[in-house]
Amino acid sequence: MNLAGRPDRAARLRSVAVGGLLSAVALVGCTTPSPAASGTITCQGGSGQMSVSPGVVSTDGPNTYTLVGPTTTASCVDSTGSGITSARFERFSILFPSIGCLVTLGTRGEGTGTVRWSDGTTSNVELVATLDSAYGGDIATTVLSGHFAGMTGSSRFLASPTKGTCFGEGITAESIQTGPSTLRRS
Fold this sequence. Notes:
CATH architecture of the largest domain: Beta Barrel
Number of strands: 11
CATH topology of the largest domain: Porin
Structural class: mainly beta
Largest sheet: 11 strands, antiparallel
Number of domains: 2
Strand content: over 45%
Helix content: 10-25%
């Protein structure tokens, strides 16, 4: 301060600099998250290979279906404005608590997975598979976190045994084909 009781020029500059720094910190640390994307995203079906553990046999028991490597990349139409052009499952695993070669219609399995989008982002998803035939049914998807969090959708699937039979060690591998799926806000 100078003798007249007014801040000197250096003190004013320090005050402006500190105020500016605090404002910048406040803006960076307290920004509001961007609003969730609205609209839908529709992706064509894909295919992949699954391992089945333990193998499915004639008697009912718990079996886990796990994706082996990523699925094929599916093209997508994105009306959310995110610019997504394609997607694929990086991983998924679905547990059927009680399933055998003689499938009861309505048998359900639940699991989780990760979808990788064309922009490199991912979504962690919850999956519920409901069988309406020996090797087919619907998969309901709920995006738990990541890109498109909160969106839901479903698609048809068809699985075909590729290794093993209902006798001996059972069916231990299957291929899977999924139909188109549209994710939307619930």
